[in-house]
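Hi U.,

Before I forget, here's the chain from the pilot set. I'm dumping it here mostly so it's searchable later in email.
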Amino acid sequence: ILWALRRMKRYYFVLDPLFTEDAKKAPYFILKGHAKALLGTDLTRRLQEVSVPVLVMGTKEDGIVRPSEFSLAAKNIPRASQVWIKDAGHCPTLERPGESHGAIISFLKG
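Structure:
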């Protein structure tokens, strides 16, 4: 858990200065509890219950979520579409806004 927290904090501190300021305000035990809850939760079985169209936007360079997890979500959500954003990490809408927003608009238009 500590490794995941350090990696997540390091990634966001470099990427997003606003997150950095917010994260400095959060007590460490809250971040640790959040990470522990996420690491112990697997909702894969419930993905099939999603009944609305979903866009799964993934990146292969994400430092937090593995590419296989994006693919697993897209495979298990009945009405999912998947798109890969190139040359982006965990926050493609911040790192590659043109490509990300284009994918979202295309998805919404059907």
